[in-house]
Each structure stands twice: as C-alpha cells, then as structure tokens.
Design a protein that fits this description.
single chain, alpha/beta, 8-stranded mixed beta sheet, 29 strands, 30% helix
Length: 653
C-alpha cells in the first residue's frame, strides 16, 4: 500500500504534524505501537519559554513562535472535536532562593513580600521571584486525547499496534518501512518517534528519564484551590490542574533505558516540592509515573530534512515537546507540501552534529604538531604507498575496487592519535567501525566520526556487540545511516557479527546466516564474520554475501592461523573474496594468510595493542603485500630430498 505521507510515531509531535498535513489536503497515515503510552502522556504541559530562560537564541525564537501559535492551534482542535483541549494561559511564577544579579526584560521581579501576594504559602527560603505573564500550561493528557479525536475526525489513517522494525533505503531515498504488519510505502516519510528514534536511525537522540508524581489538592466548598499558580522553581516545578491535581516534576536521570519509579526519585521530588510549597507535605498522593525525554547533545530538537530526500525528521524535543508541537507541525507541513524551509530550521538540522573534513585536509585531520612532538608515534606523511603489485591486481568487493588488501579497525588503541597515524601507516583503504560504540560514544570512540576523513577512507560499519540476528539487522541499518551522514551516500557495506558467546567470542552460525539473508534482501553488501566452516561459507555465498570472513583464531587472541586447513578449503571453493579476520598477531602470520590465497585481511588488535601501533601498522601493510606477491609469484615445489642450488656439472676438479 502506498500513502502520500507516512508518519512514524503517534505522540503529540506525530499527531500534530498529521493534523496539519491533513487539513492541507494530504493523505496521511500514522503508525504507533500504542497511542496511549506515548511519552506525551508523561509530561507536565508547561508552556514556559520565559520561565525556562532558554539560552540558545534560535531555540528561544522557536519556542516563542510556538507559544504565540498555541491559542489559535487549540481553537482549531477544539472546533474540530467539540472537546476541551486543556489549555490555560495562566502565567508562570518562578520563585528563587537567591537574589538575582540582573533584571530580565520579559519578566517582572517580585520581592519576598510581593511574591506572597501572587501566591501565598511559599517556603521560607524563597527570597522573591519572577512573574512571566505570557507563559502558561496545557493538560497534556487532555490535549493528546483531543488530538487523537481530531485526527480521527479528519480521516487520518491511525494504525495502532504497529511496530516499525526497519527503514529500507535505496539510492538516497526511503523505499519502504518494515513493520510488524508487513512493508508499507509512501512518497514522504516523517520520523517522530521521540527517544526511540535511534533504534531506527543513527541520530544522536538518547533517553533522559524523568520521574513525576501527582497529589490531590484539598478543596473546601466555595473556596479556590490552595495553589493557584504554576510554580517554576530552580530544582522542581509544581503545576496545579483545574481538576484539583497537582503535578510535581521532574527528575533528570541519565540512566539509559532503565525504567520505573524509584524511592530515591520520589523522595527527591517531594523534598524539593515541600521546600518550595510546604503545605503540600500533608496532601494525598494520587499517582506517580516516569517517562523518557528525547535528549540530544545540545538539548535542541532535530527538525527538517535528512540524508534521504524523502525522509523528514521531527525528534529530540527533550523537555519542550508539548510546547513545540504547533510550530513543529506548521514548519514541517510547509517543508513537505510547499518545499518551503523556514530559516529557523537551519539551526536544527541533523547534520550539525557531524563535521565533514574537506578533501584537501590530511586523511586524519590532525594539526601537524600533534604527532611530530610524540616520540611514540612518529609522523607518517600521507603519500601513496609504493607497491610492486600490478595495476590490474585490485580487491573487488560488491563492485567497488580497492588497491589495499589490508583492512583495519578503530578499537583498543591507546589514543585517537595513535589510531589516526596507524591507519595512515598501514596504507589501508577500508576501516571498520563499531556502530554501537560510536553511537553511544563508548570509551575510546569519542570523536571517532570526526577523526577520520571519510572522503578517503571507506567505512565498514560492523555489528559488534550484537547477540542475535534481530539485533544485528537493526544495528546494520543504523550503520548504513551513519555512513550516509558522514558523506558516503552509496555505502551499503556491513561487517556482520552475531556473537552470543562472551568468553571466546565465537560467532553464531545460525544467527549469522539468518541475519545475512535478511540484510542481502535489504540491499546490503554483507561481509559476514564466521568460524572457518567451509559449508557455512558456501551457504553465505549462496545467500548473496559480498565476502566471507573466516577467523584465523579467536578475536584478540593473537594465536595466529589455527585452522589453516579449513581456511584453505574455503579459499579453494569460494567465488567471492575471502577475508581472514581475527587472531592474526604478527606480520609473519599476515603474510602466511595471504600466501595461502586469501584475498584480504582484517587486523585490529595486533596493531592497536602493539608497543608501537604505528610501526606495527606499517609492518602489517608490508606483510600483506609481501604475502600477496608471494601468492602471485607461486612458491617452489616442496621436495622430500635436498637439491643443490649450484650446478654439479662443469666443476673444477
């Protein structure tokens, strides 16, 4: 089935975009695992660009524009549904515990006495505060329900219970999405999955957990509720709802995907809230919950175009998803339907996180002094490595030609500097990168994306750390996106690793074959890491893999070629390149593998863990070429008896 526009994600952002597009005449489908469990339900609903003191000028402009859109946007939703959308332009009071150093242009300062007139009962530590009359709140749960009703009224195709498992791409465009209900296609795709965006694309969005709690405010007959104002404190906020609930939020926890409320989190919330407004310590607890905010490195959203021509991004709204819903919908609808890009969107592009080197720069993008002053890593000039190999002797993988038959990695080096210089010294043209570790900035992988000039080195994303076929398939898709974001639009390579065994790190043959079959269907050039099993190698070749990569011995062991007989069979039978991967510890072993007829080698640990990685990298590059030359030359026959080198005739007696 083909749709005009397919939106992945059924939270407030996805629904807002769908409604705006539908009102302009587009055919729209929204996919959601569970509309009722979207992160939008876990928010407090403050509309507070003033009280939050947003530092980034573009972000402040975006938030102010959205706040200005709110009244008309809410009226439109309420007219469509006949429902109250929970909007209240009530102003926000921001008490402080320390006197400010300077005035604010958009807020009125209230001293200790004056602020008690705006809201009585504030804590003794409050010395004054700011009044933001243009800020407000919306009951996010009521609003999301109204948006769902509006989408249904307009005829948006809402698909609940649909999990998106992968985004298929072809020639710079999304060609379809793989879901729990089969493949779906559209002309335009919008990704609005919040914290879960990184499970589909390698974009820098992470979950930031927030715990919240609600109390029931006491209500006396014919008396107003005791807490009338939204209080935005330095460590907490209190949002009174018109139905008598009081929302208290929120913790900010960098704990990955760790779920659930915790005693520490709830205790922290209550202690901060009681300090701000002591009377609530005796109010009834009604509910507590938690959710994941979609955070980005600079805490700004990712909006607009992507590396695929027909994929629009609307993720990473962090703490401002409710506030930014109207402006996100308006700007992206203009972009999708009119190809009109508001100048504001330039500040929220996804590629702001990826710095591309210029072709004129050094391969490793180093300042000259950073290496020349190091006694351990002598400066290696970037220049063509002399070779005796004939011009016609090229390594061909999935239609792409390479002069070097040595591939290297990026892990285990003592520093980024030594890794950079080792890659130059090796003369390699293919470097494998662990997608998961780069994505999460694991130790030793910080800044890796920027450290290598990917206009000159071909990236080989790998699925290291994946224990199942399903994990490997998902990470492979992320790797393809990562390569595109770094400028390699046509890179469909993946080094496939499925390794459930934590001790010996031996690959799972069944999982590897299953993942390879699926990835080949999705257009990947699959380079599978396997045991030296000739039958498995043949099966993988038949499945369409671009190479096979038998191990010489366990990863990182440095044991050398322990299964030469099996590797020899694989080399003899294979019609695709054979790359010996893992276990090589010395240049002599690299030469041995190449003399056997291997098409290429992948060596990482032997270089990275050497006392001098740069010199070892050069040695491995030379050994790889020496082994290849020896293979092409053909070795002498092995004889049972001696044969004199000098002639036995014509000697002087």
């Amino acid at each position: 089935m083909t749709n005009d526009i397919l939106i992945i994600g059924g939270g407030i952002i996805g629904l807002a975009i769908a409604i705006d597009l539908k009102l302009r005449g587009a055919k729209v489908t929204v996919l959601s695992r569970d509309f009722g469990q979207a992160a939008s339900h876990a928010a407090a609903g403050m509309l507070a660009p003033g009280a939050e003191k947003i530092a980034s000028p573009p972000m402040r402009s975006l938030c102010l524009k959205s706040r200005w859109l709110y009244p008309e946007w809410i009226r439109k939703i309420e007219d469509l549904t006949g429902l109250d959308a929970g909007y209240l332009p009530c102003g926000i009071l921001a008490p402080v515990y320390k006197l400010p150093q300077a005035a604010e242009k958009t807020a009125a300062w209230l001293d200790k006495e004056a602020i008690q007139l705006y809201q009585s009962g504030l804590g003794a530590d409050v010395v004054g505060g700011w009044w933001y009359p243009e800020d407000g709140q919306v009951d996010n749960r009521i609003l999301v329900n109204a948006l769902l009703q509006a989408a249904q009224t307009l005829g948006v195709d809402l698909r609940e219970g649909v999990a998106v498992r992968g985004i298929q791409q072809k020639q710079g465009k999304v060609s379809g999405v793989f879901t729990s209900e089969g493949e779906l296609q559209a002309q335009i795709y919008v990704l609005a999955t919040g914290s879960w965006a990184t499970q589909l694309l390698p974009i820098p969005v992470r979950p930031v957990k927030g715990q919240m709690i609600s109390l029931r405010m006491p209500k006396e007959p014919r008396q107003p509720l005791p807490l009338q104002r939204v209080l935005f404190g330095s460590e907490t906020y209190l949002v009174p709802r018109q139905d008598g609930r009081l929302i208290i939020g929120a913790t900010v926890e960098e704990v990955g995907w760790t779920p659930n409320n915790t005693p520490k989190g709830i205790q922290t919330l209550l202690a901060r809230a009681i300090r701000l407004y002591p009377a609530l310590e005796n109010w009834a607890i009604e509910e507590f919950w938690w959710g994941f905010r979609p955070g980005t490195p600079d805490e700004l959203p990712i909006l607009g175009t992507s590396s695929c021509d027909n994929l629009i991004l609307a993720v990473g709204h962090y703490r401002n998803g409710i506030l930014l819903a109207p402006v996100t919908a308006s700007l992206l609808a203009d972009l999708i339907l009119q190809q009109k890009s508001d100048p504001l969107l330039e500040h929220f592009r996804c590629d702001r996180f990826y710095k591309k080197s210029t072709p004129a720069s050094l391969v490793m993008n180093l300042q000259p002094s950073t290496v020349s002053d190091s006694p351990l890593y002598p400066k290696i000039e970037e220049k063509p490595t002399p070779t005796l190999l004939p011009e016609s002797d090229e390594l061909m993988i999935a239609g792409r030609k390479f002069r070097s038959r040595l591939m290297t990695g990026t892990g285990k080096y003592p520093s980024i500097e030594s890794m950079q210089q080792s890659i130059i010294a090796s003369g390699c043209q293919i470097v494998t990168v662990a997608v998961r570790r780069v994505q999460t900035k694991a130790p030793g992988h910080e800044g890796l994306a920027e450290a290598i000039d990917w206009t000159k080195i071909w990236m080989l994303p790998n699925t290291a750390g994946c224990k199942t076929a399903e994990e490997a398939i998902r990470v492979a898709r992320l790797g393809r996106e990562m390569a595109k974001l770094l400028g390699q639009e046509d890179n469909n390579f993946v080094k496939l690793e499925v390794i459930p065994d934590p001790k010996y790190l031996l690959p799972d043959p069944i999982g590897t074959l299953q993942a390879a079959e699926q990835l080949v269907k999705e257009g990947f050039a699959v380079l599978p890491y396997i045991n030296a099993d000739p039958l498995l190698a043949k099966r993988l070749e038949e499945a369409g893999c671009a190479t096979v990569m038998p191990l010489g011995s366990p990863i990182g062991s440095g044991q050398g070629i322990r299964n030469a007989a099996n590797i020899a069979i694989i080399i003899e039978e294979a019609k695709v390149p054979v790359v010996v991967d893992a276990g090589i510890g010395a240049p002599s072993e690299a030469a041995q593998a190449m003399e056997m007829g291997a098409d290429a080698l992948l060596i990482n640990s032997a270089i990275a863990l050497a006392e001098n990685p740069v010199l070892m990298a050069r040695a491995m590059g030379m050994a790889t070429e020496a082994g290849r030359l020896a293979y092409l030359a053909g070795r002498m026959p092995i004889r049972n008896y001696a044969s004199a080198s000098s002639p036995l005739t014509g000697t002087i007696s």
